[in-house]
Amino acid sequence: MTQDFSLWKHQVRQAIRGLSTFEPPFGQGFRAALHALYIESHFVEFMAAQGWRQAGLGEEAGAVLLNLQTQLNDYDEPDTDVAVLADPRWWAILGVVLQAAALLGGDDCQVYRPRPHR
């Protein structure tokens, strides 16, 4: 059973990593990254089942994941990926995204930083 939760943890980690690396217009967009987290990796169910515990992670990971879930649920994202990337609220959430990825074993996250227009 722990192996199942470890696989699920990996799926959630990959989806969280996608939130930190979405790269318009070449990569997946913000909504696709959210879809991967909420639909494909079943993040709500992972949280409801306290999947982080079952996968061998501690309470710190659970608290960070719950914080991430709350912030994403409360985030009223702009209409475009470019606007999301320009939104200071997103950058605050991104800090939690990176913290969650690190606690799940995803210290390889890279953040897309838009190039300034010249």
Brief descriptors of the model:
118 residues; mainly alpha; 0% strand; globular
Give a quick account of the main beta sheet: strands, pairing sense, barrel closure: none
Q: What is the overall number of helices?
A: 7
Average pLDDT value? 83
Question: How much of the polypeptide forms β-strand, as a percent range?
Answer: under 5%
* Multimerization state: single chain
Name the overall outline. globular
> How many strand elements?
0
Radius of gyration: 14 Å
Structural class determined from secondary elements:
mainly alpha
Number of domains: 1
SSE order, as H and E? HHHHHHH
Poorly predicted regions: 107-118
Secondary structure: helix percent: 55-70%
Termini gap? 54 Å
Blueprint of the fold:
Elements: H1 2-21, H2 30-40, H3 43-48, H4 51-54, H5 59-74, H6 81-86, H7 88-103
Helix pairs in contact: 1-2, 1-7, 5-7
Structure commentary:
This protein is mainly alpha-helical. It has one domain (2-103). The protein has 7 helices and no strands. The chain has helices at residues 2-21, 30-40, 43-48, 51-54, 59-74, 81-86, 88-103. The termini are far apart. Mean pLDDT is 83; it is low at 107-118.
Give the gist of this structure.
The chain has helices at 2-21, 30-40, 43-48, 51-54, 59-74, 81-86, 88-103. It has 118 residues and is an all-alpha fold.
